[in-house]
Amino acid sequence: MSAPPKQPPSDADPEWVHQGLQATARKGPIATTLALLAWYWGDWPVFTVVVSVTGVLLLVNLWLIDLYAQRYGRGEAEWPRMLANAAGFCVLGHSTEWSPLVWTFLLYNMLWFYGLGPRSRPRLAVYLLIVLSFSLWDGASREGVLAFGLLGAFGYLITEKRASLMNQMVRQVVEQRGQLEKAHEQLQQAHQRAIAQEKLSSLGVMAAGVAHEINNPMSFVTSNIHSLYKELGRQPSLPEPLREYMEEVLPATLEGIKRVNAIVADLRRFARGDPEAYAEYDLNAEAQTALRLAQGELSHCQVEVELGNPGLQMGRPRQIVQVVVNLLANAGHATAAGGKVRLSTHREVDGARVEIRDTGTGMTPETLRNLFQPFFTTKPPGEGTGLGLAVAHGIISAHGGRIEVVSQPGQGACFTVYLPRVPPLPNYRRPKDESITEGSQPLA
Ligand code: ADP
């Protein structure tokens, strides 16, 4: 695997640009100091001054100022650094009678004090004022003072402009990187959703096949049991065991067959492989279908159903069933034996809402945050795929609706699905598609 590319600093920090410039700016004074030492070799009094000033400035710049910066902050440390360098410059200028070599320190110091902070300009102005007035007072050539003063000031301004442009560019790069990361994340989510839909549609085709296989023998069983029931009913008298069959066993069997047929019909309707067209549907009827499909997951709970009058909706009913089945199954999984799961439907001003409330384990803030992520599951391997809510979210968003969740650990959960009466056109997306709230209202 290749190493990850080196990242620029997390934010376009002027300090970062400053440090980069300083690293280069340091090389100039070192070269000039060496030139001064070579120039005054043999002129020992000046040589000694150059060595001493260089030593003191090194000490101040590399060690004392860092200590000061650690205590009072980098911005504050620039003031004493500036004063120390101004003093060193004046001493060197005086002892070398303002050699042009010493004047080059003025230029380096402009970069040395560089910074884009609001106080860097006043600091530079104070520095210039100190060194230029001292050099004039000390008898330096006016022409030299003017030339180096102007060079220093404009050198600073040009560097400042360049650095600010660089900062801007760094900021743009960081911003673009952020946008790219976001786009990449969205792409990944879309990819995961596509995988989820793909898995689900294969599952749908499989379920449709199984339902078809069950349907054929079930039609024989249904018709045979009906015939038997009718035939026995026509008999004037029946022996005791057969009468018991006629009165108890066969009606119960027929009831069981009716339920199996209803489930098979639901399964076929729900799992048909062809893309479903928009249709008008009765939300209550679909909620009841979902309840029947999810019954296996809810057998250990007390199930309460409160169907309001949500009215007719437009949309893809099979998908709505799929969402409610997922939510009911999750409620059942989270609820211990004897706990309550309540399914209710309600009318809204411009649509309807379905509420699935349980008295189960509830969710931690961490789970709430990741709830709709594909493949997020807290269930043991083999029990949860982490696809149910991701798919539910995709379906409800496509219907122009939203899912709201209220939950707290140990206090159950309430999932509310809001659906507009008519879904938006396919290329229209509502900006807000889900919201999660902590805190729960347990079942009464
Ligand atoms: P799966 O059910 O396969 O884990 P889902 O996407 O349906 O995938 O659910 C993701 C996770 O959300 C679950 O693993 C569970 O932690 C949490 N969850 C969903 N519904 C509930 C609920 N009613 N109560 C508690 N936790 C829930």
TrEMBL record:
Which Pfam families does the UniProt entry name for this protein?
A: HATPase_c (PF02518), HisKA (PF00512)
Gene Ontology molecular function = phosphorelay sensor kinase activity
Q: Which residues form a coiled coil?
A: 166-200
Name the SUPFAM superfamilies on file: ATPase domain of HSP90 chaperone/DNA topoisomerase II/histidine kinase, Homodimeric domain of signal transducing histidine kinase
**Histidine kinase domain boundaries:** 209-423
**InterPro entries assigned:** HATPase_C_sf, HATPase_dom, His_kinase_dom, HisK_dim/P_dom, HisK_dim/P_sf, Sig_transdc_His_kin-like_C
Instruction: State the PANTHER family in the record.
Output: SENSOR HISTIDINE KINASE, TWO-COMPONENT SENSOR PPRA
Name listed for the protein in its UniProt record: histidine kinase
